[in-house]
Batch of 2 targets.
Target 1
Amino acid sequence: KIAHAMMQALLYEALDVYKSRYNFNITKRSRNEEIFYNFFTLVERDFKIDRSVLYYADKLCITPKHLSAVVKAVSGHTAGDWIDKYVVLAAKVMLRSSSYTIQEISSDLNFSNQSFFGKYFKQHVGMSPSDFRLQDV
């Protein structure tokens, strides 16, 4: 429940960034706005399944290049950045608020092995998952 709440908070944060940059009217979204909204909804649902821009572009029936350009234009961040932010946030929440082992978290987030998860996490956070877990809040 905590992880899901954190993911929703990230979604709301992204939409707030979007709203602060553009006039947001739910009834009248441009095509790019619609693509961004649908992309973010898919990321929220499928971030544990796949972390590639290609996966989300295929789901939206557009090219990865077009998806990346649209997401960057609408939000100021790349599609890959949004996917990574979602995965890292989920990992952080699970590391801090659960008794799952790092191996279990790695598996739950669909990493091929714990080593790859550790490298991914360290690249994005600057420390290993075990160091993050031990860090004072």
Note: The chain is about 75% helix and 0% strand.
Target 2
Amino acid sequence: SKILNVGVIFIVVALCVVYQQDLKALVTRLSRWKEDKNVITYGNSDDDLRSSADEIVKACQTLSKNDIGALIIITPNSVPNHLLDTGTILNAKVSNGLLQSIFNTKAPLHDGAVIIKDSMILAAGCFLPICQREDISKELGTRHRAAIGITEESDVLAIVVSEETGIISVVKRGVIKRYMTPEKLFEEIEKAYGISYAKSKQRK
């Protein structure tokens, strides 16, 4: 009996050693599955994304009128953890009111960037790499340089609201477009979401 027990233990240990990589992968999948069950998700149909785009545009308009600065990053892909770790994780649905609250000058997270994926605000108060290019206009501040910096290294859309002038700008692949109207801003966000703007206009 003792020999049998020792033999069973030996076999179990041997199997664990041989298949340790497979066991690690299994444990990782199980832990991610458990985490995913606790994550709140929202619909990401074209209509849901257009609704989110509309909320972002409304927030930017209000912030612009009140000369409140803002930096919003919209990403179609996963966000590097080192960027999310610099801010506060929210995992909240995109809304005009929430964005205004975040960028309120008396709020603790207003200085950093908001990172949005689909219909979710993943995090706020995030600090981004600052572009050090010398060809950038001196009238563009830290938010604009951060927007240029993140778009040069990642495939994201950055939206900047200037607190000095109220001008709304978008940045893509390091190229900045200023003086965004609500219509143009909505179009840029739709593109970032991967929605066909032409089809959107036909449906309206």
Note: Residues 27-41, 198-204 have pLDDT under 50 and may be disordered.
